[in-house]
Amino acid sequence: MNKKQALRFLLLTAALLCMLTACGSKPAQTPAPVPEPPVQEEPKAEAPAETPAEVPEETPEEAPEEAPEEVPEEVPEETPADTPEVPAEPEPVDLTQVRDAIIDGLEIAEPFLLDTDALLNLYGIEGAWVAQSASFATMSGTFPDEVVLVEAVDEAAAASVAQCLQSRLDEVLVQSKSYDADNYAAAQACQVRCDGLYVSLLLSPKQAEMTEICQSLLGSQG
Description:
By secondary structure, the chain is of the alpha+beta class. The protein contains six helices and five strands; from the N terminus they run ααβαββααββα. The chain is rod-shaped, with a radius of gyration of 70 Å. The chain starts with a helix and ends with a helix.
């Protein structure tokens, strides 16, 4: 080794020592902690959903067998003989026509016609009892005619009208008995007649003929 090589070797050695010294004096650098990778939490296993307990299917009860519908028995129709007949109501009668038939049929001379208001003064018959009336009287002869025809509003009124007319007949009987036997006999043949709500007094020597006319027109009103 020549001098130049030896010198170069020494210088290199010295440089290496200096480098080693410098490295030994420096604090060793602590390496930065390497961050640990985050621990991934395992997902909690969800509790299995409770499966609803199976409800046993209800076996439908057997419906009771429906009884067969009863077919209604046919009711035989009643024959007309089995059904009681309802009597037909009598048709209303116009008493004016009855009165005119008596006057014309028996040729009553100069009749004096009486309206419903006159019946109160002559016989005591209230207008409220009367549905219709047709009456007349005569002024001639030994036995004047008195014909009173009344339709009452109801049975009670008919009874009241009949009572008033009977009072008049009784009065004539008393009067005729005291002074005229013939008139008394004629008055005894007279009567108050009731046909349902129709009430009449035929006070006349011709009462038999008048009664026949009344019955033919009034008919059976009872």
